[in-house]
Amino acid sequence: MYPCIEIKVDGIIDNINILKKACDERGIFISLVTKVLAGDSALVEKIISKSDVKTICDSRLQNLIKFKDINAEKWLIRS
Predict the structure, then answer these.
(1) Coil, helix or strand at residue 73
(2) Which DSSP symbol is given to 76?
């Protein structure tokens, strides 16, 4: 009934891995910025575990705390 967004995680992971490979060839480091994921730790963990990206970035400390059990480097980002 209500509008909803369907997140196709496998497609996101495939795109991340393609982007990561292209960036690696050029010496560019990429991270997963979790802005759109709204602190969903299960989704972030799935993406991190199945992709080649091993750094999580978020502008909210409370979200990074939610990710504490995920095996990835965490960065607090601010503008």
Answers:
(1) strand
(2) E
**The model's pTM:** 0.80
For 33-75, write each residue's pLDDT tens digit: 988 777 789 999 999 999 989 999 999 999 999 999 999 999 9
**Residue of 32, 23, 29 whose CA lies nearest to 55:** 32
- Do you know the residue count of the chain? 79
Strand partners, 55: 73
Angstrom distance (rounded) from CA 24 to CA 44: 22
Concatenating the DSSP letter of every residue in 12-61 gives HHHHHHHHHHHHHHTT----EE-GGGTT-HHHHHHHHHHSS--EEEES-H
62 SS3 class? helix
CA pseudo-torsion sign 69, 67, 75, 47: positive
